[in-house]
Structure formats: structure tokens, C-alpha cells
Amino acid sequence: MQPSNPRSLVKTSLGLIGYALGSVIALSGISMVSAADPPSLRPVGLLLVVAGLLLMPPTGKRLGERWPKLSAWYAAPVLGGLVLTVGLATTLIVTADWERKHPEIVAKREADRKARQDAARAEEQAKVHSEAENAAPSVTAGTTHLDRTAMLDEARSALKANQPERALTIVYDNAPSEMLRTDAEVKALVEQIEARIKANDALAPNSIFAEKVRTYWLPQITGIATTAPASAPDIWNAITKLEDAARALEASNAMMLDQAGKDAQRKLQKAIAVKQRALFPILRAAYGKIVGQVMWERDIDVRVAGAGNRRITWTGGLFAARANIARAQGGAQTHLLRLRFTHSSYEWVRGISERYTYTMDAPSDDAVGYWDQGAFKAVR
What we know:
The chain is of the alpha+beta class. 67% of the residues lie in helices and 7% in strands.
């Protein structure tokens, strides 16, 4: 076998390179010709198409046939390179000149690019808050939750025995917050239970209210653990129990109560206030930890600090943009107010002096009441 001719190998390699470069440059030129703006780039695009064709080996062959003096294998690539150089230089000059004369279009392009980035970040932030609400398992230490079927059976049995308060407790203790919001059967059962409670309250306000406070509401409030919840649903379930007790207290204000009923009112209000004063700082710290676990995966740090854990700080590069801060606060504010945070701060680097803080009009921890359509309704 004869050894390969080095000159032939070089020509073959250069031919392949010529095909590749020529195709890329020619396609770039076609793209420029079809571009809407700047129009002045279209002639430059044609120049690049010519340069791309000159770099291809068939063009060199045709040139050699037409003009024998250009038959050298390097003539067409050299000529194509010269045309390409002129085309690229012209492209830079024309583009710079066009951008200088049309700053409004350049600004619009930049604004569109930032808007797309902000929209993607906002979608990511929404996912973060959605996941934060159900961030951890729904089983707390020492507590076994019923599955959906067992929960519904037990709640219906309690309702059939005219124990609607017990039935409501079974549902709230076992149904995740997502199920309470979306499961039609569970929502219908809760409505039946609440209707039965109201019906029972209307029968004998004095005796029933005092007895209910003694046998149900006080044990319900004192039974709320003042230890850190392990999951977001457990946080909201604890707050829901306190708010339900506050609603029961509010309903009693419309009753003509005897002395025993009034004493029961005072005891219930005091029990709610005492429990909230001890519980809310713990719930806020737990919220920061649970949400922080989710945010960590997105390079965002969450810290809860201050007197009574009423300040929360979010740190991440995402918050270098004010629009992202506004979106993040908008997504979290309902939760933060329900937990009675008073300040929510955003910084893009931890400890930096440049930060933005929202001051929220949250009630004190011992204020008895509930949230209704974004407003706190105090109950006295």
C-alpha cells in the first residue's frame, strides 16, 4: 500500500473545513437578509453569503476552470476570507451606528429580555411559596394521622352522635390544608358539621355555651402543643383552632348570657390569649425553618429573629431586583400576617446595608380574633 500524500490530506482537511465554515457564514448571511432590523444589514448579509460560498471547495474549482490563474487550492479560501473580514467589519460598524440612531428600539429589546427573566423568576417564586405551604411531612412526632377514609368515617360517627365539635376536631387534626381546600367531600362534611354546631347553639344559648366552653373549647385550646410543629399544615391547623375558638367567642357576644355564660366567655378569652402568647413565637420560628428548607434549594436563605421572632429576613441574589422583592412579598404576605410577623426584609447579600423592609400591621400575639378577607377582626 502506498503511503498517503501529505498534500492530498491537507487539501481534503481544508476542503472539509471550507464546507463547514462556508455553510455557517452563508446561513448567517441569509439570516441577516431576512432580518427586520436594522435594514442596513441586508446588503452585509448578501456579502456574507458570497463569502460563505467562496469558502466552499466547489467554488474554488469553478474559479480555477474560469480563471486558470486562480487554480491554486488556496485562492478561493483566501478570497473568501478577505470578503468575510470586510463583511464582519461592516456588520459591526452598521450595527453600532443603527443602535446609536434607534435607542428606543434597543431599550425595548432590553426591557423585553428583562421582562421575560422577571416572569420566569416570578413563576419560580410562586412555586416556592406553594411548596412551602406543604413543605414537610404531615406526621408529627408522637401523632398518628388517620387516612382520608378513616377520618371521614370517624367524623360522620361523631356527627351522628350529635358531637359536631368532636367531628370538626377529627377533620382539622387529620386533613392536610390542601385537602380542606380542594376535596369536595371533605368540604361538604365540614359545612354539615358547622351547620350542626350553629343549630345546637341556637337551642339553648346559655347552658349550651357554658357547657361547650367547659367540655370542648377549653380542652381544645389547652391541648394545642407549644412545641415546634414539624410541617406547614400543622402550623395552619393550630392557628385554625385558635381562630375557630375566637369565632365561637364572637358568636357568644350576640347571646343573652347569664352569669355562668359570661364567666365562660372570660375564661375562654383568657385561655386563647395565654395560648397565643406562648405559641405564636414558636410557630414563627418553625415557619422560618420549614420555608427555609425549601428556599435553600433555590439559593435563598431565610432567618427569623427579633423580639418574639416577629422579624423575617429573606436573602438571595433574586432580590437584587425590586420587582422580584415585590412579587415575593405579595406571595408571602397572607401567611406572614396570619403568623403575626411585623417586619419582612429582603437583601441580595447577607448583612448588606442595602435592603428593603416591609412593615406589616399585625396584631399582638395575645390579641384574640381571626382573619377575614385579609383583615383582622378583633374579638372582645
